Amino acid sequence: MKQITTVRSSPAPHWVGDGFPVRTVISPRGGKALGPFVLMDFAGPFEFEPSDSPRGVETHPHKGFETVTIIFEGEVEHRDSVGNSGKIGPGDVQWMTAASGILHEEMHSKAFTAQGGVLEMAQIWVNLPAKNKTADPGYQSLLASDIPKVKLPDDLGSVGIVAGDYLGTKGAARTFTPINMWTVTIESAGEFVLPIPEGQLGGVYVREGAVRFGDEVVHATEIAEFPQNGAGLPAACDGPTSLIVLSGEPIDEPMVAHGPFVMNTSDEIREAILEFQSGRFGSIPARAHP
Asked: What would the pLDDT profile of 82-132 be if each residue is shown by its tens digit?
């Protein structure tokens, strides 16, 4: 069985653009990621007043990795420089492959902007191996109805399988390397085992409630990290709890993360900056105004 090695609290929130008050749960430390997971920002819950002006993050670049956005409350609209666009709401997931380079924008939807409301979401950066960093950009819009759900024993709750495999049920997303990304909802007190395979490391983020791993209690806004060795992670909850579980095989390559780029060397970072500055990532048409 796996055992928790580290429990970390999230730092105080900071703003990304004017639409996302985030806690950075995972960040590159000393040039290392948590397995294939380079970064995780958790936004909200935060209540926005109605507005006439769109909020969010205007056009910006990415290269060398994938961004995964999971919405719990609110609505976000996406547009990018290869022609993809989409709106995601509660339970939906947007999986964008930046790979060889892309521009995109992430804004509150028009309806959410006008009506206001609570926004709560996570964005996770998934690294790509060197051989896939030059792949074409891509986009997967995964609606809540696309994401398989599996019930936990004893009516304890359910697991949404965004990516990977949960006891034989395959996740919705296509991935470049073996990873699991699950959203776990616990509805009552009880014990369970997260079936994380041998060879994968990662973390469990507590969105709401609290979870126990042995004698270690992990509370909301904390992340519990686990190693590659062992299979299965025993857990227990005393009441309603919500978790995000991330696990994956490490990418055994050098990594350099700088701003919106995740590459293998500093020279590749400099090259990515020059590509962006020279317009190699394309452009996004101006938004239509009402």
From this structure: 999 999 999 999 999 999 999 999 999 999 999 999 999 999 999 999 999
pLDDT > 70? residue 213? yes
**3-state secondary structure labels for all residues of 102-147:** EEEEEEECHHHHHHCEEEEEEEEEEECCHHHCCCCCEEEEECHHHC
Question: Cβ contacts of residue 283 below 8 Å, gap of 6+?
Answer: 81, 103
What span, in angstroms and rounded, lies between the C-alpha atoms of 29 and 12? 18
Q: Closest Cα partner for 43 from 54, 56, 34, 58?
A: 56
CA distance 189 to 265: 47
Q: Residue 66: in which H helix or E strand, if any?
A: strand 65-73
